[in-house]
Amino acid sequence: MKKKSTILTLLMLIIFSCNLEENTSETTSQETNLKSISDFDGYGISHNLAMDHIATMPNFNTASLQDIFYFGDTYSDAYFDNSTCNCTDWQTHETELTMLEGMYDDLNNASNVLVNMNYIKPEDAPLTDMLFTIFDNAISIENSTYKSVAEFTAEIEAFENFIIANYPVIYDQTAGTGNYAANMLGACSIAKNSYSYWINATLDSSHPWNYRLLHMNSNNNRQGNKIGMLQKNLFEDFGRAVGRIFVDAAGLIAGGNCGRIFDKNGRDITCAIRHAAKVSAGKKS
Asked: Any idea which UniProt keywords this protein has (predicted)?
């Protein structure tokens, strides 16, 4: 996987951030309750709890991906309310998952895909690229290295602090809605919690997802649902884990039927977090 140019991304951010002051006045008439990244911690935690819940479904290890996808609708908590879920169906999920997996395979072009699909605005691409660069640098299968949970978390938290320091974050905690910067913080919360979850699931044979992660035959299609030979290359396993983590975070940014990030009243982040969890649950490997 190619390494993205962090320096180029930072230079692009400097250029685009010059336009932020023009938009800052718009935030004065809106609720901006954000004090720290802790305001968003619940989203990532809820995402992981949803994964734990999904693993309790009957015959989980051999269940079809479609059944797992829909079983995700049975989980709810304060950050993850399915009562008003505007969730995608299985066919739409497959289409979006193919897009997200393609983005992970070509991270240099991933933000352009989101722009072209009208998920984000062109001026949002540099900040999105910064997040994707962290994923790109998380693992090197060629060098048999990967970032520890602590290292990855530290990079994400530094990125979160960068967002808070340089972008107007409009976030209504009661309604669970927010602007682009708020949604990016939600994606960061998913990223760091998901990284810990899926890396541990890969390493810990007692983890409820371990069997599916390591025994899923990569040659099966998403409807095949057969359990194949054990994947023996640990770093390939890590690579698949990071791919799943990317889909988790990018799935929130895309948001399915949850509205666009740049909608007038902001995007429903609670809806997007549900969408991200369902995308993750319905991913093959």
From this structure: Signal
Six-digit token string for 218: 């990569």
Total-model pTM: 0.82
Record the tokens describing residue 142, joined without a space.
């060629």
Angle at 256 (CA atoms; ends 31, 264), nearest 5 degrees: 30
Q: What is the dihedral of CA 51, 52, 57, 62, to 10 degrees?
A: 70
Q: Which residues pair with 172 in a beta bridge?
A: 177
Q: What are phi and psi of 141, to 5 degrees?
A: -65, -35
Nearest 5 degrees, angle CA 143-CA 146-CA 148?
Answer: 150
Question: For the chain, which residues make up each domain, given as ranges?
Answer: 51-74+85-281
Rounded-to-integer distance, Cα 20 and Cα 254, Å: 23
**Alpha carbon distance 47, 82 (integer Å):** 13
End-to-end CA distance of the chain: 18
The rounded distance, in Å, linking the Cα atoms of 249 and 244 is 9
207, 211, 214, 218: CA torsion to nearest 10: -140
